[in-house]
């Protein structure tokens, strides 16, 4: 929604980024003005955003990263000793993982589960349950993954230094890996949006009025 997007940009500038002085934020705050896109474009240049105004997903992600970095910089003492929630639950995670690590292949419940999956996926039975898992399930469950992985995909080089991560792990290699994961996530979102658009076009083609369907090459039929 355009109004929500503009309000979001104003909120980021007012509350987190604060690149402009308060008295200089008038044009950006005037979200109903026809000139707001020009004000936003100038704002992006002023904060050195490397993306174009049309690239909204990337722009939003970059501005959020900038806001997080500035928030951390203003409250470094508060956040520097913070422990991620995942690290606090390490013991619980280890405990939850034990059933898989110490899996008993001779357990009757395990055998029953394997047989149920084999019947569901129509996998040929084998006396050795591990063989059934290794050969049968792998062959059935990874066909799509293998096909997708075998497809070569060409792309353009990406300058990671242009993408602010928003936080610092303390390790340059980990920081770079996090940046790559974020970019891959954006790519997946784009692919999803493309599929949604294709689905919408397909539906529209099905329900289109033949009288106005230019692809038919005729009018009134």
From TrEMBL:
InterPro entries: RTRAF. It comes from the Eukaryota. Belongs to the RTRAF family. This is RNA transcription, translation and transport factor protein. It comes from Scopus umbretta (Hammerkop). The lineage of its organism: Eukaryota, Metazoa, Chordata, Craniata, Vertebrata.
């Amino acid at each position: 929604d355009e109004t929500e997007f503009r309000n979001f940009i104003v909120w980021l500038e007012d509350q987190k980024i604060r690149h402009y002085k308060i008295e200089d934020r008038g044009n950006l705050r005037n979200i109903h003005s026809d000139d707001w896109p020009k004000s936003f474009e100038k704002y992006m240049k002023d904060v050195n955003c490397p993306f174009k105004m049309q690239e909204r997903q990337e722009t939003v992600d970059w501005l959020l990263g900038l806001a997080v970095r500035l928030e951390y910089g203003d409250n470094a003492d508060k956040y520097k000793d913070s422990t991620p929630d995942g690290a606090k639950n390490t013991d619980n995670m280890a405990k939850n993982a034990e059933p898989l690590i110490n899996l008993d292949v001779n357990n009757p419940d395990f055998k029953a589960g394997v047989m149920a999956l084999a019947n569901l996926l129509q996998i040929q039975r084998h006396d050795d349950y591990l063989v059934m898992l290794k050969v049968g399930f792998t062959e059935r469950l990874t066909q799509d993954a293998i096909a997708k992985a075998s497809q070569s995909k060409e792309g353009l080089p990406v300058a990671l230094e242009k993408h602010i991560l928003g936080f610092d792990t303390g390790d340059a290699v980990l920081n770079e890996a996090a940046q790559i994961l974020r970019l891959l996530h954006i790519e997946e979102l784009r692919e999803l949006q493309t599929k949604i658009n294709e689905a919408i076009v397909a539906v529209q083609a099905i329900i289109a009025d033949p009288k106005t369907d230019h692809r038919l090459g005729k009018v009134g039929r």
